[in-house]
């Protein structure tokens, strides 16, 4: 979309490191003025993948990370039209664009066939992230509004409505509230948003969330594939010309220094869930605080133990509850955070 290809200016970038992992070069650079990090993994592949991560944190159930993720795709100040990214993705031989919201990050993705397509869509994508329109009309359509029949509507609202009353989501939400105290509100929060809060959230709240978290110094772009670092930097430079300088000193990152408050006693809770019939059954979840991420040996040991217990039909729990006819199924998994995590089996 740009009439001319921007030129790479090495003086704007600071090299952080260059390493090799299994003969694959990995480079990390930082834009000196704005603070954004760019990582290139030179994988020998015909496709180029882009992952743009924003370090986000929610301390309530309004779902600001999720709602903002939806609004980003409705256009930017330079490209103020919905569907621009999808249209450009088709022209760049891309599989469209996508995103996910997690406890500690919101990540936007794109995959193109070859470097040229990626270099064309990458600056437009970044423009959407840094300078979204965030209009009231877009908010009403995408997040929440009352329709002509007086019912709650909106893309995000309907999405979460389909999830909030599901057995698995009810169990996950209650489990987090049992595992974590008010000291760890961000680990209890529903980043997707709860229906009650989605009915009350305002566009101004989302705009403030964007202003706080979607700053270049709080973002990192990871690119994998056969593309030159200088070319990616040049495309990004053109977008960053309109971005603010990174504050000095930088504010503390989300989750910085957060510690897990250990459970002082075991907890048990029975939670009913809506069901169309009595044959839907139920589910049991057993969870506990696991080792810190830094304790790699214990973390891997916990993961291996869960795999052994639940992996397939010959696993001990499968033999006990499934093959014997005592239950329908089981599974195990693990998840974690920066300073600690939880391991659990269901």
TrEMBL record:
Domain Peptidase M16 N-terminal stretches: 56-148
Domain Peptidase M16 C-terminal: 200-327
Disordered, as annotated region: 319-346
InterPro entries, A to Z: Metalloenz_LuxS/M16, Pept_M16_N, Peptidase_M16_C
Biased composition (Gly residues): 326-346
GO molecular function term, any single one: metal ion binding
Domain of life per record: Eukaryota
Protein name: Peptidase M16 N-terminal domain-containing protein
Source organism of this protein record: Zooxanthella nutricula
């Amino acid at each position: 979309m740009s009439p001319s290809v921007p030129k790479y200016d090495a003086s704007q970038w600071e090299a952080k490191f260059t390493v090799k992992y299994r003969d694959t070069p990995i480079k990390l650079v930082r834009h000196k003025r704005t603070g954004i990090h760019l990582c290139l993994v030179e994988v020998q592949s015909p496709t180029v993948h882009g992952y743009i991560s924003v370090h986000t944190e929610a301390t309530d159930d309004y779902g600001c990370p999720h709602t903002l993720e939806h609004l980003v795709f409705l256009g930017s100040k330079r490209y103020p039209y919905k569907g621009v990214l999808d249209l450009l993705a088709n022209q760049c031989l891309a599989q469209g664009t996508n995103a996910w919201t997690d406890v500690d990050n919101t990540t936007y993705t794109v995959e193109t066939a070859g470097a040229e397509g990626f270099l064309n869509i990458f600056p437009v994508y970044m423009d959407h992230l840094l300078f979204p329109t965030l209009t009231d009309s877009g908010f009403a359509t995408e997040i929440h509004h009352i329709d002509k029949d007086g019912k709650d509507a909106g893309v995000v609202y309907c999405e979460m409505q389909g999830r909030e009353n599901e057995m698995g989501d009810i169990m996950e939400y209650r489990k987090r509230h049992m595992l974590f105290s008010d000291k760890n509100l961000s680990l209890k929060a529903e980043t997707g948003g709860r229906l009650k809060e989605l009915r009350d959230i305002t566009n101004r709240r989302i705009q403030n969330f964007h202003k706080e978290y979607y700053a270049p110094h709080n973002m990192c772009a990871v690119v994998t594939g056969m593309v030159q670092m200088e070319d990616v930097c040049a495309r990004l430079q053109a977008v960053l010309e309109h971005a603010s300088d990174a504050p000095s000193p930088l504010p503390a990152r989300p989750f910085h220094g957060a510690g897990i408050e250990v459970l002082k006693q075991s907890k048990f809770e029975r939670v009913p869930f809506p069901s169309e019939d009595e044959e839907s059954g139920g589910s049991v979840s057993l969870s506990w605080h696991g080792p810190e991420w830094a304790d790699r040996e214990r973390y891997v040991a916990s993961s291996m133990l869960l795999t052994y217990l639940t992996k397939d039909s010959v696993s001990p729990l499968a033999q006990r509850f499934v093959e014997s006819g005592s239950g329908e199924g089981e599974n195990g998994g693990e998840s974690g955070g920066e300073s600690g995590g939880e391991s659990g089996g269901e």
